Structures are given as C-alpha cells and as structure tokens.
C-alpha cells in the first residue's frame, strides 16, 4: 500500500565551483541514505553569474557510495600498487544564465554514506591578481529525495515465505539478514502463479546498487518451476534487500514463495581469553604484581592451532589503534607475522566502519618469510575485500565476493614482497584473506605452512605526498578527508607523476632568478644613500632582504631555504613592497621633512593593518599608491603655482628620469597583473623585481642643491657641528 512508503528530503547549501588543479578544488557533498530505501533521486542544480565574463561551462559531477569519489580529470598517473576504479560521473553544461536542473535516479540504493563531487574543467594556470578581474561565479547544489518502506517484510533464513506481487508497477521488496561467518547463500523462488492461472514471469534483483560499480544480481524466473541462485561470500551482518517484479500483464498479480538459506563457516582462532591476556601484556608490559603465568600462556596462543584444522578459516586477532585524524594502525596480537596454510584461509579484520576513515588511503603490505615455506614453488595468495572476506582463494584468483570485487595480492619465494594501496576506502569492515597455494593443488602442499608479515595502516596521504607535494586535510561540514597538492610540475594523486616535472636544474634556475633579481635594488639603495634619503634606503634594504628570502622559501622544488616561518616571510615581503612604493612617491612630492616623515610612519601603520586583513587584495597596493600620487600631484601643483612655471621645471628631469621611471613602473604593473602564469612565474616575477627596482632608481628626486654628495658624513664631526639654515641657505659655525 502507498501508506507503507515514506518520502524524505535532504538538502545542503550551494557551493561555488572552482577550476580543477587538485582534489581540493572539487566541492564535496556528503549524504546519508537510510535503511530500507527503495528509490533515491538526486536533484542537481547548477547556475552561473550574468556578467560578460561568464561563458558556457561544463560541470562534471561524480558519484560514489561509501567514500569520496576517486577522480582523475587531468589524466595523471596514480602511484604504483594503487587500486583505481573509475568513478561514475555525468556532465552538466551551462550555456546561459538560466539555471540547469538535472535529476539522477537510483533504484534500490545501498544504505549508508553517499558522496557527490563537482568541479569545473582544468584550471588555465594564469595567476590572477585579486581585484583586477572579476571571476564568474558558478554555483552548484545537490539535494536528495529518498523513498523508503516503513515495514519491509523480513525473509527468515530456512523458512519458505509466500508473497504476492500486486502489479508490475508495484514490485515486492523483502530483506534478509546475513549472519556473521556466512560462507554462502542460497536463494530459491518457487510456486510462481498468476491471478489468471497463467505461467508467470518475474525478475528477482538481489542486493543494492552502489556506484561507481554495482554488483546487483539478477534472476529471471519463468513458469512454476523452481529457480535458484547461489552466492559466495555474502556481506556479513548486513540486511540484503531483494526485489521481485512482475514481467507479465499490467492487471495480473503474481504469487511466489521465497526461501533463503545460509552456509555458515566455523572459524578457528586462538582462545579469546589468551588473546585478552596477550593484549594486556602488550599494552601494559611487565607491571609489578602481574601474574607470572600470563606471558607463557600468551606466547603459546599462536601455536595452539592443532585443533583448528577442521575449520574453514583461521581468524587472527587484530587491534585497531587510532593515531590521529584519518590515521589508523592495525596491530596483530600474535606478532607481526601470521601463519598461512593450504587447508583454510587466514583471516584478518581491518575495521574501517567508523564513518571517518574513508578520507584517507588504506595501505596493506605483505612480506613472506622465505625460510618458513618448505615448497619452493608455493605461492601465498591474498585478497583484500570489503563487507565480506574471500574464503575460496584456491578456487578463484579474482577476489570476487557476492556483491563486491576485492583486490588480489600474492607473494612467493621469487617475489616475497607485495603492497596494495586502496584510495579512499569505503566505510565498512575490510578483510584480508591469505592462503597457501600450490601449482598441483592442495595435495602437493599437504601440511606445509608459511609465515607472512602483515603491515596494515590508514594514512591521510600515501607517503605524505612525497618530496614534491603537500598533504592537506580538507573538511566538508563534519567530514574530514585528505588530498595532495603537487608542485614543481609534479602531478598525480600522490604527486608521483613526473611527466611534466621540472628538472633540478630548472628548479635551481627559478630560485636564482627570483632571489638574485632582488639585487637590482642595490642601485636604488646607492642612489638613495648618495642623495641623503636614508629612510628610503632603509625601506629598500628591508624589501630586498625579505623578498630574497621569501622567494627562497617559496620555491616548490628541492632548492628551498627558509630562515624563518613562511607566513612571516610572506607578510614582510608584501609589506616591504607596498611601503617602498609609498615612500618613493612621497619622496617625489618634495614635502617638508616633518610632514613627510609623519606620512611615512602613518602610512606604514595603515598598510600593515590592511595587509593583515587581506594580504592579496589589489587595493592594498593600489590604495596607498593612488593616495600617494594624489599627495604628489597636489604638492607639484602647489610648487608650480608658487614658482609660476611647471614643476619639475627641468626638461632633462622629465626626459631622462621621470618618463623612463614611469614607463618602467607601468610595464612592471602590466607584467605583474596580466602576464604571470604558473609556468612562467619564475621569470615574469623576476622581471617585475628588476623593473620595480630600476623605476625606483629613476624616480627618486635629486638631492638638495645646498647638500653635497654623501652629505651625511659631515654629521660625524668630532668637536664642531655644521648647522644649516634651509631657508636662508647661510652657514654658521658654533
């Protein structure tokens, strides 16, 4: 009946999309699909601004169940031993300012976490100065509608249950609980009869849809004969949804009888009491007052396996140790190595079901002890799988379970090491199954046993993104996930793709250009000191020093030198650059000394405050420049009106100093604002350094007529002080 269905609606706020250069540019949406959901509908809304800068744009949207989608829009290489399965994605084209609305339907979706990631195409690489251009805003919002059953019928294992499919438009939904240690499931449908007493045709769908890959099983039954389906390794301790839909006429109902049964595997493992003692001993150590017999008993735990050969699997106890955010280490209680035989697989449980573990990388490393294997041609096969373990490694090598595809590994005496990296593992219980295999079958192996060292851990970024990347912890509401931001031309998920990487020589050249180009401030400093502008010379020296060491610390490659915190160096570089322009223009205004120095100090304080508020804003540089130019023009007009002719009055001053300096300054601003990209940054920004320093040397006004070059040295007298009257240009000795 319709009353059995309940619809629910979930929404999240819209996010502004970014052009893609690394995973942090993708906007993530996190939803939770409730149990017994039979229909999931995504409502995707995309819009853009209305300005002339907005053009037609294609938005890519990725979907995944259980973990954030693993995407590769740039086509870069993943790290070796990493498992990559393409994400399910769609494209949305925004060709006008009219919002685009797209629906995506998923029938019988898997319950739990679902993720959506959206992004724009690859970034152009141009470095845009904030304020010079207005980027077009592209907005994206995802809403979720679910339709779920409030009282879905439960199919009890081993009990035949009759049901009726009312019509093809209203399929039948039931669910069955899969117990722990279930090795196989057998489903049977029988007694299929229509209301018109005709041969019925029904389709049975077992399992739920997961993206990007779905392993939903389909079974078509025709007539009254029994049809069945056997499933190996169904998901443990989960509800399995079964949908039966009629393929007959629209008005006929169908009666069926369903039966589900399970084959449960009896695990063999060391005594839980001994495992508990081993755990206490490993964590507490030899404490005063501890029982002396505990350690020998715990040491014998891994050897007590003689009575477990009749079981279908050997379970090894594993302790999950949380280290940090998205950082987990798995510790084996019976030691770093586990015994592996051909009689039954060895099973390790890797718990990743907290809901906060899917934002990192699961790393599983195996090392075979060569001396422990008596057969030279034996191989230890391993499978890493989610939801349910692979219990028949000797029968199949593809590590497939009933509703998922695992990841195979193998070690042998010729290749004793193996590693697997699972990027963004889905939220679930993960299992590592190991079994000894021989080319001629189990009879050849006999009772042979090998030992394999297992190292398993969850890390935010594999290998911490390497030497050419930075691991960044990202957040979407309460969900945390990690991504690698690469530099020096390196790319890929873990910054291991060197197809476009800069050579060490190129990195050294970039560092030398960006640092040594600041030495062009030396002529400006010399001119300032020569003309007795000591405050200005001090500011230029400050700018040269911090710009040099900021760019030495800012380099992406191996040629890096940081004399202090990066943020401090950046702030001092920006402050020195803006203050240098400020004092230069005020010096050109030829103000009275007291007024000039007051403006020097007051302007520097205001510039420091504005840079703290927004370091990269264009008006932090343009504002002081325009205000200083206004003061300079006012002062020049005042001087010209007072002298009754143009100021500065010398045409040589205009032709040989002011016009070249202004031209260099305009070229420098053009290069800085419109020509810099990520690829040419190291030489375009070096040109900016050279042009700005040269323009300062040209724009500094000449010294006062009554002052000789290096006039400051005359202050350093022993007994006499030279006094000067600027007004009357008379000198007196006291």
TrEMBL record:
Residues 288-310 are annotated as: Disordered. InterPro entries: EGF (IPR000742), NGX6/PGAP6/MYMK (IPR021910). Disulfide bonds join 461-471, 486-495. Residues 457-496 form the EGF-like domain. PROSITE patterns: EGF_1, EGF_2, EGF_3. It is found in: Cell membrane. Signal peptide: none annotated. Residues 288-302 have a biased composition (Low complexity). The chain crosses the membrane at residues 509-534, 594-613, 619-638, 654-675, 681-700. Its main location: membrane. GO terms for cellular component: plasma membrane. It is a multi-pass membrane protein. The keyword Membrane applies. Coiled coil: none annotated. Keywords: Cell membrane, Disulfide bond, EGF-like domain, Membrane, Transmembrane, Transmembrane helix. It comes from the Eukaryota. Belongs to the TMEM8 family. This is TMM8A factor. It comes from Loxia curvirostra (Red crossbill). The lineage of its organism: Eukaryota, Metazoa, Chordata, Craniata, Vertebrata.
